[in-house]
Amino acid sequence: MIHLSGFDKIFLYGQPCDMRKGFNGLSGIIQNQMQLPPLNKYLFVFLSKDRNKLKMLHWDKDGLVLNKR
């Protein structure tokens, strides 16, 4: 379970995202298009084109965590 209070900021990516992307693809979007560091205490939320799928990426103590819904 993700507790939203554990994050400094929450970012929702404004464009539909290819849900086949994993850690590398999503962190590339964060760095290159959003111009943000993926290793801060931020939660990044990505939605599919039809908005029925969701991926969340955040940094934990040991590495990046990818949650799918």
Task: Explain what the structure shows.
The chain has 69 residues and is of the alpha+beta class. The chain is built from one helix and four strands, in the order βαβββ. Strand 2 and strand 3 form a beta hairpin. The longest helix has 11 residues. The model has no long low-confidence stretch (mean pLDDT 94).
Q: What is the string of helix and strand elements?
A: EHEEE
Number of helices: 1
Q: What's the count of strands?
A: 4
Structural class: alpha+beta
Low-confidence stretches: none
In angstroms, what separates the terminal alpha carbons? 12 Å
Major β-sheet strand ordering = 1-2-3-4
C-alpha Rg (nearest Å): 11 Å
What is the mean pLDDT?
94
Largest sheet: 4 strands, mixed
Spell out the key features of this protein.
4-stranded mixed β-sheet, alpha+beta, 1 helix, 69 residues, 4 strands, 16% helix
Provide a brief overview of the structure.
This protein is 16% helix and 30% strand. With 69 residues, it is an alpha+beta fold.
Layout: helices, strands, pairs:
Elements (H helix, E strand, L loop, with lengths): L8 E4 L10 H11 L8 E6 L6 E6 L4 E5 L1
Parallel strand pairs: 1-2
Antiparallel strand pairs: 2-3, 3-4
